[in-house]
Design goal:
Blueprint lengths: L1 E10 L2 E11 L4 E5 L6 H9 L6 E6 L2 E2 L4 H6 L1 E4 L11 H11 L4 H15 L14 H13 L5 E5 L7 H14 L4 E5 L3 H7 L2 E6 L2 E6 L1 H4 L7 H9 L5 H4 L1
Length: 244
C-alpha cells in the first residue's frame, strides 16, 4: 500500500534521501527511525507528494505520486511534523474544512467527526480556536484530521510529539486498534514507542536505509533497541540498503 523505489531527493549539494526503497502492506505499523537530519521527514514528504523526488518513485495504494498525485493523496491521512496553521479556526471548523475537502458531507460527515473525536477524546476542544490550544491539544486536532476520512494509509510524522504520558498512551491504543486494516508509517524519536507499537522498524542515517527488521530482531536481550539504533545510526554501512 506504501511503496518507495530508489527514492532520492537533493537540496543543492546535499542528498537528503539517498536511493531509499521499501514497501509497507496493510496490517503493518512501521517505525521510521533515525537521528535528526537523517532524512525521515523529507522521505515522508516525498511519500505524500508534498515534495517532488529527484529520482525513483513513491506510490500510495498503487497510485504513483508523480503522475496520479490526487488519487494517491485521497488514500492517506497525513500528520506533518510540528503541525500548525489555521490559528483562527475552531477545532470544529478546522475538521469541517478538512472533511469537506475530502468530500465528506451531511450525516456521513457528522458520524465521522463524532467517531474521531471520541477516539482521540477531542470533544471538549471542538469549539476552541486552534491558537488558544496547547501544543498537545493542537497535535490531537491534527491527528483527528488525518484519520477523519478513514483512509487505508496513515503517514504520521512524530504523532505523539507534545503529548503528555496519558495522551501518548491514548494515541498508541488508537494505532493498535486501527492497525489491522491500515498500512501505517510513523516517525518517532522515542525508541520505546517503536518497541511497543511497531511491527517493523526502518532505521535511516545520512539519507540511507541501514536496517529494516522487526523490533524484536533489532532488540537486545532486554528487549531494547537502543544499542542497535546507536550502532547503526552512528556508523551507517554504505551498502546496507542493498542488504535489507
Amino acid at each position: 500500500m506504501i511503496e518507495a523505489k530508489n527514492l532520492t531527493k537533493n537540496f543543492g549539494p546535499l542528498t537528503a534521501v539517498d536511493n531509499i526503497s521499501f514497501s509497507i502492506a496493510a496490517g503493518e505499523v512501521v517505525g521510521f527511525l533515525g537521528p535528526n537530519g537523517a532524512g525521515k521527514s523529507t522521505t515522508m514528504r516525498l511519500l505524500t507528494g508534498f515534495l517532488d523526488a529527484d529520482g525513483g518513485s513513491a506510490s500510495i495504494c498503487s497510485h504513483d505520486m508523480a503522475t496520479a498525485r490526487r488519487e494517491g493523496q485521497y488514500c492517506f491521512g497525513y500528520l506533518p511534523e510540528a503541525a500548525g496553521g489555521y490559528p483562527n479556526l475552531t477545532v470544529r471548523e478546522f475538521l469541517v474544512y478538512c472533511g469537506e475537502s475530502r468530500q465528506l458531507f451531511g450525516e456521513e460527515f457528522r458520524v465521522a467527526i463524532n467517531k474521531v473525536c471520541s477516539m482521540i477524546d477531542l470533544e471538549s476542544a471542538l469549539d476552541k480556536p486552534m491558537k488558544t490550544l496547547s501544543k498537545g491539544w493542537r497535535q490531537r486536532a491534527w491527528l483527528a484530521q488525518a484519520i477523519l476520512h478513514d483512509p487505508p494509509v496513515l503517514i504520521l510524522d512524530e504523532p505523539t510529539d507534545g503529548l503528555d504520558p496519558i495522551q501518548k498512551e491514548q494515541v498508541r491504543t488508537l494505532i493498535h486498534s486501527i492497525a489491522p486494516r491500515k498500512a501505517i508509517i510513523l516517525s518517532t524519536h522515542i525508541l520505546e514507542e517503536a518497541e511497543v507499537i511497531c511491527t517493523r522498524a526502518i532505521i535511516i542515517a545520512n539519507g540511507r536505509v541501514v536496517a529494516d527488521d522487526t523490533p524484536r530482531n533489532l532488540a537486545d536481550d532486554k528487549g531494547r533497541m537502543a544499542h542497535a539504533f546507536h550502532r547503526l545510526a552512528a556508523n551507517p554501512l554504505p551498502d546496507m540498503a542493498k542488504l535489507t
